[in-house]
Amino acid sequence: MRIVFIGPPGAGKGTQSVRLAERLSIPHLSTGDLLREACRLGTPIGKQADEFMQTGRLVPDDLVQEILVERLEEEDCQNGYVLDGFPRTVAQAENLDEMLAEHGMPLNLAMEIRVEYGLLLRRLVERGRDDDTLDVIKKRLQQYNDLTKPLLDYYQQRDVLHVIDGHDSPEEVFERIVTVVENQRI
Ligand code: B4P
């Protein structure tokens, strides 16, 4: 299965997509993790991405796509994957669809995790990653509204979008996700 997770920062994309990938025995691919690793290693992409991430802005599409395409071509991705944090713009979604069409492999599911603003802020401030300062979090949430939300219509029109209530415990949210995936497999 090929599944994408969409949601604002703090919605639980990382938390849930790791679990789902483990349950389905397919790779979990997080563009956030790939970009952070590139920054840590000081690769050319990492050096360019760092400034965007530290200020809460989306990294330019071409850089993110380059880093992800390399990973998607690896052997373990040929039977499916869970994408966490990609696509984040309509241009990234179109690029992914083109890539999937070339291989005759459609996207099976787009999961939107919904959580209200106040709870997102609380979760991220408590987590305290480098980019989890209040100013940067607000910028990331604004970028989500401006650039990522239009993706929901994109996937709705393609009939693959499922909305998940992300307010409860990670276990309860995961059960909701598994129910959607099981229904899809029937
Ligand atoms: P990401 O790494 O994707 O980070 P994120 O949006 O903050 O979400 P994350 O998945 O980590 O957090 P989660 O909600 O699971 O992106 C970081 C940056 O990388 C972006 O700002 C951007 O600059 C760049 N980037 C990444 N992908 C890109 C792309 N495609 N295009 C352009 N730029 C890109 O969890 C947050 C916290 O909530 C955790 O502490 C977790 O434990 C907690 N939590 C989760 N679910 C919970 C629950 N049900 N109950 C209680 N707590 C919960």
From TrEMBL:
<feature type="binding site">
    <location>
        <position position="92"/>
    </location>
    <ligand>
        <name>AMP</name>
    </ligand>
</feature>
<dbReference type="GO" id="GO:0005524">
    <property type="term" value="F:ATP binding"/>
</dbReference>
<keyword id="KW-0808">Transferase</keyword>
<dbReference type="GO" id="GO:0005737">
    <property type="term" value="C:cytoplasm"/>
</dbReference>
<feature type="binding site">
    <location>
        <position position="168"/>
    </location>
    <ligand>
        <name>ATP</name>
    </ligand>
</feature>
<feature type="binding site">
    <location>
        <begin position="10"/>
        <end position="15"/>
    </location>
    <ligand>
        <name>ATP</name>
    </ligand>
</feature>
<feature type="region of interest" description="NMP">
    <location>
        <begin position="30"/>
        <end position="59"/>
    </location>
</feature>
<dbReference type="Pfam" id="PF00406">
    <property type="entry name" value="ADK"/>
</dbReference>
<feature type="binding site">
    <location>
        <begin position="85"/>
        <end position="88"/>
    </location>
    <ligand>
        <name>AMP</name>
    </ligand>
</feature>
<protein>
    <recommendedName>
        <fullName>Adenylate kinase</fullName>
        <ecNumber>2.7.4.3</ecNumber>
    </recommendedName>
</protein>
<dbReference type="InterPro" id="IPR033690">
    <property type="entry name" value="Adenylat_kinase_CS"/>
</dbReference>
<dbReference type="InterPro" id="IPR000850">
    <property type="entry name" value="Adenylat/UMP-CMP_kin"/>
</dbReference>
<feature type="binding site">
    <location>
        <position position="36"/>
    </location>
    <ligand>
        <name>AMP</name>
    </ligand>
</feature>
<comment type="subunit">
    <text>Monomer.</text>
</comment>
<dbReference type="GO" id="GO:0004017">
    <property type="term" value="F:AMP kinase activity"/>
</dbReference>
<feature type="binding site">
    <location>
        <position position="129"/>
    </location>
    <ligand>
        <name>AMP</name>
    </ligand>
</feature>
<keyword id="KW-0067">ATP-binding</keyword>
<keyword id="KW-0545">Nucleotide biosynthesis</keyword>
<feature type="binding site">
    <location>
        <begin position="57"/>
        <end position="59"/>
    </location>
    <ligand>
        <name>AMP</name>
    </ligand>
</feature>
<keyword id="KW-0963">Cytoplasm</keyword>
<keyword id="KW-0547">Nucleotide-binding</keyword>
<comment type="similarity">
    <text>Belongs to the adenylate kinase family.</text>
</comment>
<feature type="binding site">
    <location>
        <position position="127"/>
    </location>
    <ligand>
        <name>ATP</name>
    </ligand>
</feature>
<comment type="function">
    <text>Catalyzes the reversible transfer of the terminal phosphate group between ATP and AMP. Plays an important role in cellular energy homeostasis and in adenine nucleotide metabolism.</text>
</comment>
<comment type="pathway">
    <text>Purine metabolism; AMP biosynthesis via salvage pathway; AMP from ADP: step 1/1.</text>
</comment>
<feature type="binding site">
    <location>
        <position position="140"/>
    </location>
    <ligand>
        <name>AMP</name>
    </ligand>
</feature>
<feature type="binding site">
    <location>
        <position position="31"/>
    </location>
    <ligand>
        <name>AMP</name>
    </ligand>
</feature>
<dbReference type="GO" id="GO:0044209">
    <property type="term" value="P:AMP salvage"/>
</dbReference>
<keyword id="KW-0418">Kinase</keyword>
<dbReference type="InterPro" id="IPR027417">
    <property type="entry name" value="P-loop_NTPase"/>
</dbReference>
